[in-house]
Write a structure and sequence with these properties.
This protein is an alpha/beta fold and 336 residues long. The protein is built from 11 helices and 13 strands. A 7-stranded parallel beta sheet has the order 3-2-1-4-5-6-7, sandwiched between helices.
Length: 336
Amino acid sequence: MRVAVLSPVAWRTPPRHYGPWEQVASNIAEGLIKRGIDVTLFATGDSVTAGKLESICEMGYEEDRTQDAKVLECLHISNLMEKAGEFDIIHNNFDFLPLTYSALINTPMITTIHGFSSQKIIPVYKKYNSIGNYVSISNSDRSSQLDYIATVYNGLDTKYFDFNGQPDDYLLYFGRIHPHKGTAEAIEIAKKSKRKLIIAGIVQDEDYFKEKIEPQLNEQIVYVGSAGPEKRNELLRNAFALLHPISFDEPFGLSVAEAMLCGTPVIAFNRGSMPELIKHEETGFLVNTVDEAADAVDALKNINREKCRTWATTKFSCDKMVDDYLSLYSQILSRA
């Protein structure tokens, strides 16, 4: 089987620090390669893969701002589509734009929908309902207007996440600094529970950071910048808990699964996919307010960290994700 995995070109695949779509595309590609599948990864030129690499730019447009994002995207997608006949199946991890080629090629395409940036993009997905082979990354992140062939949870390579049964006493916020992700709320939770908070992630909203976050930084509330894989593993495994007080319906939440793989429970606002990721009162707590979250910190002593690891390994491993996708590839190819 010859598979083309299409990743975005915002960041390197896998990303150095931030880039959830690129991370999942990498996990799919490398997981397939380990199974002996012939994989070509379409990504930035500095991407890392054990398979073949196709690229039209050396770096992503978020890492080299001299480039035009739309121009790179057009060149990148067309590069794959003009070579579509070389593959048995195309796995699209790059949103809706590649769909506009799908009726013009003979190679079947499977599209993992990593979330909807806006309801305005739904018409494109809807147009290609019959041939899109859409996969959702959680049951909560589905549009009633679209036809799906499955839900496949994002999978992580478990060897990169070390279990720790004896954590430190700090709370961790791990994610982009943005109102939607609840950085300010995480600070409130830490203050109410009288715990140290470490904040790690890229600053996506400069004004929010300067107005809501930076003035509160001190010995208790510490910002350590963005964190690459090694630092991420260290922060997650040593944390008493991950705080995830989101204010939007998040499609998945990689950091939630990553934390639990280290045995670290998660306290999250009960929105979007969180009830699918977290077993309430077993691998963490689903709450609705800052006060409820602060109360949940005291209840963390009742959480078994080994159960967190087992749950995450069973549900969110790269091996399980690849098994699920290989099954879907077979279904699609048998129909084709």
